[in-house]
Structure formats: C-alpha cells, structure tokens
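Regression check, NPW case 512:
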Amino acid sequence: MTELLTAAQMRAIEQAAIESGEVTGLELMERAGRGVVEAVFEEWPELAETSHRAVVLCGPGNNGGDGFVVARLLKEWGWDVEVFLYGDPARLPSDARVNYERWAALGEVLPLSAAPSAMTETDLLVDALFGTGLGRGLSDEFQDVWDSHLDCIADGVAIVAVDIASGVCADSGKEIGIYAFVAELEVSFHRLKQGHVLGDRMGRAIVKDIGINTWQHHGSQTCEPVTLVCIEESSLFKTPFDHKYDHGHALILSGGAGKTGAARLAARASLRIGAGLVTLGVPGAAQMEVAGQITALMLRRVEDGDGLASVLEDERLNAVCLGPGLGAERARELVPMAVRAEHTPYIVLDADALTAFAEEPEALFGMLHEGCVLTPHGGEFARLFPDIAEKLKAVPTKGPAYSKVDATREAAARAGCVVLFKGPDTVIADPDGRCIINSAQYERAAPWLATAGSGDVLAGFITGLLARGVAPMQAAETAAWLHVECARSFGPGLIAEDLPEELPKVFRDLGL
Ligand SMILES: NC(=O)C1=CN([C@@H]2O[C@H](COP(=O)(O)OP(=O)(O)OC[C@H]3O[C@@H](n4cnc5c(N)ncnc54)[C@H](OP(=O)(O)O)[C@@H]3O)[C@@H](O)[C@H]2O)[C@@H](O)CC1
Ligand SMILES: Nc1ncnc2c1ncn2[C@@H]1O[C@H](COP(=O)(O)OP(=O)(O)O)[C@@H](O)[C@H]1O
Ligand SMILES: [K+]
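Current build output:
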C-alpha cells in the first residue's frame, strides 16, 4: 500500500521519529541530501560519469538545509558547485544551519539575487528553496531566478527539486502564487506527498527512503493518510465451482432511441469485468435498436419509474447503473425508484443521473445510501457540489491549499456514499474520510482515456464489480485502476469500445 502524506503528517512522523530517539534531524537531512544525489545519478547517468557544474538554490528552511547537503556531496564528487541562499544564514533552523556551516568550509554562499548569471552555465539546477513548509506564494524577489529557471528548461539543463518544486503546495499540487518552479525530477523523502499526484504535475516524482519506520508513528494522526490504489486480485477470481448467479446480476438503464450507445458500453464493461448476468433496461421505443446490437447481454423493457420498480422486485438484480445516455428527465424518474428499491443493494450514478439533480442536489443526497457510488467528472461535480467546487477552483494565496482530496472527502460526507471524482488524478472517498487516489500520471499516464464514452465504461466496471459483491469503495478503486490499465495496455488509438475488450489481457497479465 503506497501512502501519500500531507505536509503536516510528514512533520508529525518526522517529529515522532526524532522524539523516539530512532534518528536525529541531522541524520534525516543527510540521508535526504544523499537521496537527491543518488536520484540525480540514476535519472541522468551521464552526470555520474565525470564532474559537472551545479547551481544549488537554497531556501530559509530545512529544504534549504537539504540543498547544502547536496552541494557538499556533489563537491566531494569533484563537481564545480555554486550555492545561493535566499534569506539570512543566521536565521536558518539548526540542522540547516549546521549544513550551511559544513558547506561554508568548502565554498562560498552568495545571495539568491546573484544566481541568474550562474544559471546560464550549469549542467544541473538544484531547487532547494521551499518544500513542505511553503506558506505563501513566492514574492517578486524570485522573478529573475524564476525566469532564469525557465531558460534552463529551454536549454535542456537537468533540474531536480528537493522534495517538491518550490512554489507548489505539497498537499494539493497547486501552484501557490505566480512563481512556481518546474522540475523534471522531484525527489521526495519517506513517502510521496499528496501534491505529487494531484493536479497537472509536470516532471516525475520519486521517493527516497530516509530510514523512518512509519507504521509506529501513525497513532497520533487524526486523519488516515490517503493511499494510492492497490488492488486485491482475489476479488476478481472466479472459482471452478461458481454459478453465474454467484457473480450477481447487473441492470444498466438505457436512454431512448438513438441514445443507447452509452448504456450498451457500460453493460458490456459490466459483463467483461465478471458480472454473472447483465441486463439492459430499455424504453420500448429503443428496444429494436438495442436488440439488434447485443448478444450475451439481456434486455428488459423499462418504460418508467413503475416499470423499474417492478423489474427490481427480482432479488437477483443486485447492482444498478443509471446515467450513461439516460437523459435528465428519465433520470429524475428512475433514480428515486432505484435508490429506494428494497432488494437492490448497489447503485452507480453517473452522467445524466448526476446532472439531473443539479437544481436540487440535497434531494438526491437525501435518498442516497451507503451502497451508492457517484462518479462525477469535474463538470458534474461542480453541478452537485457547487460550493465545494468553488473552494477547489479558488486560486490559492497561502499553503496548504484546499485539495481535490479535501473536496472529494467533503463531497462523500455530504452525499453519504462513495464519490469517485474523475481525472488523471481520480480521487475516491467514502463518508468516513477514507480516501484513495488512482493516479494516471508519470509511468501510468493514460492520455488516450480522454475519449468519449470512457466514463461510461468506468461506470460499467464499477457496477459489474458491485454485482459480484465487491464493496463500494473497493469496487470503485479496483475499477478505476483496471480502467487505466486497459488504456495503457491498448495504447494509442484507444476508443471507449476497446476498454472492455482489453480487460481479458489485463486479467491474464494479473495472473487471473
Ligand atoms: N519532514 C521530514 O521528515 C524531513 C524534511 N526534510 C526537508 O525539510 C523540508 C521542510 O522544511 P521546513 O519545514 O523548514 O520548510 P521549508 O519548505 O524549508 O520552508 C520553510 C521556510 O520557508 C519560509 N517560507 C515559506 N514560504 C515562503 C515564501 N513564499 N516566501 C518566503 N519564505 C517562505 C518559512 O518562513 P516563514 O513562513 O516562517 O516566514 C520557513 O523559513 C522538506 O521539504 C524537506 O526538504 C528533510 O531534511 C528530511 C526530513
Ligand atoms: N488525460 C487523462 N488521463 C487519464 N485519465 C483520463 C484522462 N482524461 C480522462 N480520463 C478518464 O477518462 C474517463 C472520462 O470520463 P467522462 O469524462 O465521464 O467521459 P464520458 O462522459 O465521455 O464517458 C474518466 O474515468 C477519467 O478519469
Ligand atoms: K524544493
């Protein structure tokens, strides 16, 4: 399980480790600096071959302290290193101060304002200005250095950020102020921070172990750390003795004639992910259109709310998906019937089933129960949770900024069910505050998922897993993970139809 921490959680863990006597702050700083140098040589092996030039920009806190360690280690490696400090050395925190002095025995420390001229001729730029202690946006004092770092990017200079690029909030991934740096490589310590996987982050973030033994330090945390999705393959197995009804029966409600494609995509996805049976609930006018397009899928006529209520009297139908191509009017009529159905434990609401309640989201939330899963994209999220979306969209002036994790947790608590907030950084939360991120960034990038209908497939995947008896939170996270794996496995040229068809290969690769 990969944990992601906030700045406050990291500070608490660090403090607990130091207080326990396990390690000193100075040792942690030394390991952090060493980790950065190791990471640089791993990322750019050519830099390890001979000595080069480095410019190290140090800030007024412990991030700057790590920078002094990096400078010293590179110097010992034979490099030509220039160090620039923002702020007064006398006011550095104690560990950073020790490393400032150690460096000062080897070389000069110039004020940050002198850095731009050195930055024109460097092979490596080390951004050690601010890390998890970023409290506000960088002032205009940083403009020249920031401009010069853009020139470094254009010139192909290797740029490494210590912990996180300066000016980027470690909790939210948002840029605070206008002078946020960009780094090709971010080297974080102990665990990635939430900000490394939220938002449109550039570059690549990696973690270096600094020898903190986490598990014993979590007791004091008020909020469990967010984790990256980690799927349990066992929830996907079918045993040789299973009957199709052991894997549930999903019902996917379709819209009217000419609008049935989205529901058919979701239905196919439900079947592929292993639901025992999948039925499309179709209005009479669309029956012929759908019947001509399906084989293993079944079809039931569902004209209106009463029709749905009577179909759901069949206790074997245990998961229902409403939204893809449903139409707002039909959604307003069918959603209340589905969520109140006595024998139907699981409901997925997507697309039109969310938008249909934009005028009265509270009415929707009043009906939902813990077997429901909402799967909004950004627009749908803003329609259902306008105040939360406003907070998320607001341009932050201080850190830590309100994050997509905060927003999704707040939405799940309000809705009273699991909310999966889509994007390359899909965040999934339950009403108790459990939160998981499915990151489609760095080596898991899946840009071809930005294609019409891919969300319908995701809704179908979740519904299929729910039908199979997987609990809502786990169904949402497993489906989101498989969705990205299918896209990555298929590669460029992917359209939504390809996602369910790629699932057998992904399953085989998982050893199912
Ligand atoms: N936790 C761990 O286990 C380990 C942590 N380690 C390292 O420590 C880093 C965290 O160190 P940190 O807490 O000292 O914070 P850091 O990011 O250096 O900045 C704080 C300073 O910046 C200042 N300041 C803030 N914003 C500003 C602005 N916009 N403009 C101007 N000033 C601003 C702020 O001043 P103030 O807000 O008080 O005015 C304060 O002086 C972490 O990222 C990692 O690299 C490692 O050594 C290994 C173990
Ligand atoms: N650039 C991207 N990288 C990774 N995943 C993406 C990207 N763009 C979209 N997605 C994913 O694709 C799906 C799109 O869903 P949605 O916006 O509802 O599309 P549609 O309504 O067309 O089905 C979501 O699961 C989202 O997380
Ligand atoms: K930094």
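Comparison notes: The first strand starts at residue 3 and ends at 5. The pocket of potassium ion (ligand 3) is lined by residues 63, 127-131, 161-166 (CB under 6 Å). No diff flagged against the previous build.
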